[in-house]
């Protein structure tokens, strides 16, 4: 029985509350809170890592696309150099020499060496910012006695 007259009743009531049961309830709640914070931090780190990974992959894809565009442009320039040299050889079967075609984003240097077969080498350079892409194409051209082109074998170098 609790006697409030002597003030002991409030001490006994306090002892019952603090006999360890109250602290266990408090500890379980704290553990749940700590676990929730830990899970939240892990989830946040996962999302942050995923965002960084997607950003890096996106930049890599953009870079590869630009580099691919430059490679295509360099190949087209080299092909145009070969075509120009073929036109010159078809007009003059003894044509030999070197020439350069300059474009806004690059250039192609072409060399024509006479003989049988005529060897045409075109090396293009495309520059965009710090990136430089080179392509070289070699064409071996066979001609008939009148200088007409009878065959072309192209090789990417």
Distance between the termini: 103 Å
- CATH topology annotation: Pantoate--beta-alanine Ligase, Chain: A,domain 2
Going across the major beta sheet, what is the strand order?
A: 1-2-3-4-5
Query: According to CATH, what is the class?
Result: Alpha Beta
Our estimate of the beta-strand percent is 25-35%
Indicate the percent of residues in helices: 40-55%
State mean pLDDT (0 to 100 scale): 78
Number of domains: 1
Taking the sheet with the most strands, its summary is: 5 strands, antiparallel
Low-confidence stretches: none
What does this structure look like?
The chain is α+β, with helices and mostly antiparallel strands and 157 residues long. The protein is 52% helix and 29% strand. The protein has helices spanning 8-17, 21-91; strands at 97-102, 106-113, 118-128, 131-143, 149-156. The protein has a five-stranded antiparallel beta sheet with strand order 1-2-3-4-5, covered by helices on one side. The radius of gyration is 41 Å and the shape is rod-shaped.
């Amino acid at each position: 029985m609790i006697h409030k007259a002597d003030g002991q009743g409030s001490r006994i009531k306090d002892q019952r509350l603090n006999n360890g049961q109250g602290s266990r309830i408090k500890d379980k709640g704290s553990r749940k809170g700590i676990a929730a914070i830990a899970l939240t931090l892990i989830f946040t780190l996962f999302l942050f890592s995923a965002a960084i990974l997607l950003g890096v992959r996106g930049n890599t894809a953009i870079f590869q696309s630009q580099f691919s565009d430059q490679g295509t442009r360099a190949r087209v320039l080299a092909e145009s150099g070969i075509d120009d040299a073929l036109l010159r050889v078809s007009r003059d079967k003894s044509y030999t020499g070197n020439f350069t075609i300059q474009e806004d984003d690059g250039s192609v240097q072409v060399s024509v060496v006479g003989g049988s077969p005529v060897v045409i080498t075109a090396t293009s350079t495309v520059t965009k910012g710090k990136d430089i892409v080179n392509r070289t194409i070699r064409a071996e051209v066979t001609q008939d006695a009148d200088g007409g082109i009878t065959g072309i074998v192209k090789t990417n170098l």
